[in-house]
Design brief:
The chain has no helices and 11 strands. By secondary structure, it is an all-beta fold. Strands 2, 4, 5, 6, 9, 10 and 11 form a 7-stranded mixed sheet that branches. Strands 1-3-8-7 form a 4-stranded antiparallel sheet, with no helix packed on it. The radius of gyration is 13 Å and the shape is globular. The relative contact order is 0.31.
């Protein structure tokens, strides 16, 4: 599976961005997808995830109510709508996929496939 994250940019606090994750290759249409982010010098952290069916979505506490994850299985795309962005959301955002169903998508160690990351910068 190859993953390509895009949609990052520079915005002001309170504005919105939508990140996209495009999957291609073998098994691209399978399994759930997670979003993680990392600030230089800090560990990568979980942001949001969705199961393959889209019936179950998960969010880190610090993004609940502001971010919405969705997916389009016809096009093997997963989106992360980020509203009310804060300076502390500034990070490189990555999408990731596991290799099985039923995996805890909040655990980055269970996702062997990663996109290249897209930078989100929120100015105050």
């Amino acid at each position: 599976v190859q993953l390509q994250a895009s949609g990052g940019g520079l915005v002001q606090a309170g504005e919105s961005l939508t990140l996209s994750c495009a999957a291609s290759g073998r098994d691209a249409s399978k399994y759930g997808t997670g979003w993680f982010r990392q600030v230089p010098g800090k560990e990568r952290e979980f942001v949001s995830a969705t199961t393959w069916s889209g019936r179950n979505s998960y969010y880190a506490e610090h993004v609940k109510g502001r971010f919405t994850i969705s997916r389009d299985n016809d096009d093997n795309m997963v989106y992360l709508q980020m509203n009310s962005l804060k300076p502390e959301d500034t990070a490189v955002h990555y999408c990731a996929k596991p290799t099985a169903y039923g995996v805890d998508l909040t655990q980055e160690g269970l996702c062997p496939y990663w996109g290249q990351g897209t930078q989100v910068t929120v100015s105050s």
